[in-house]
């Protein structure tokens, strides 16, 4: 497998945001929906100069941070030939996974945002958006909060409330797999947030190892193409053929239903997916780099909400 060098060169950055409520914040049971919806709405308010136009008809759409992150469309015919109807979005919000829905002013809330490829440059806009969102309020009661700090994945502070400044710190995650994983014959995958996987236009709860690898490859291919300007030309069929020999040893997957209201589309959206554990056995060593980067990118549909998060246990 020749993907390892490409995977380790792909820019991925992860940031931890810490906020403190100024009044009780009430979330639905799916906090990712609240964060994602409020983020998009506030970023558009900050960036959009053509208030009465949609992004498609706007002359500034290729330069507007909101349009690039949320509304970019495919104009290149080659991308359509490859089967993409629209670009994957270059970020993932990871909300708190717990079931807590109420936070008081004596607590803090931590969530993470992952950004991919050339979109890492937009971090200042993202931080400013959550700073402004704290003034406007979030959740069912539009409760206000204060953005206390933003840190890199390894604890370096990029922003804190005392200095009110952004620090220019290299925040990309250094991926390395040399010598770390040898002779892996069994692996556990824990699906931590609902993972929406479609096969033959139907959502499924049966996730073979080959299906898992196929999802990761497709996710990476899109992110590389649109945000790293590289096309993955590897022999995917050979990789998938090798993945077919890895068997499912144990599975405790179940389907859970989620629902969110889309303000933009003015309709309720179904966001159910699988959670649980699967144990695979076979010759897995070569797949570890793919599985590990899939932890960061998430897989399946609606990843920007934090869906499709899994953990690899070796």
Key attributes of the depicted protein:
314 residues; alpha+beta; Alpha-Beta Plaits; 2 domains; 5-stranded antiparallel sheet; 26% strand
Oligomer: single chain
* Helix-and-strand structural type: alpha+beta
Name the helix and strand elements from N-terminus to C-terminus, one letter apiece.
HEEHHHEEEHEEEEEHHEEEEEHE
User: What's the total helix number?
Assistant: 8
Task: Give a structural overview.
The protein is α+β, with helices and mostly antiparallel strands and 314 residues long. The protein has two domains: 4-10 and 174-313, Alpha-Beta Plaits, CATH 3.30.70.1900; 12-160, Alpha-Beta Plaits, CATH 3.30.70. It contains eight helices and 16 strands. It has helices spanning 4-9, 31-47, 65-71, 77-81, 123-136, 209-227, 236-243, 288-297, and strands at residues 12-21, 25-26, 91-94, 102-103, 109-116, 145-152, 157-160, 186-195, 198-199, 202-203, 247-251, 254-256, 259-262, 267-270, 273-281, 310-313. A five-stranded antiparallel sheet has the order 3-5-1-6-7, with helices on one face. Strands 8, 11, 12, 15 and 16 form a five-stranded antiparallel sheet that branches. Helix 2 (31-47) packs antiparallel against helix 3 and helix 2 (31-47) packs across helix 5.
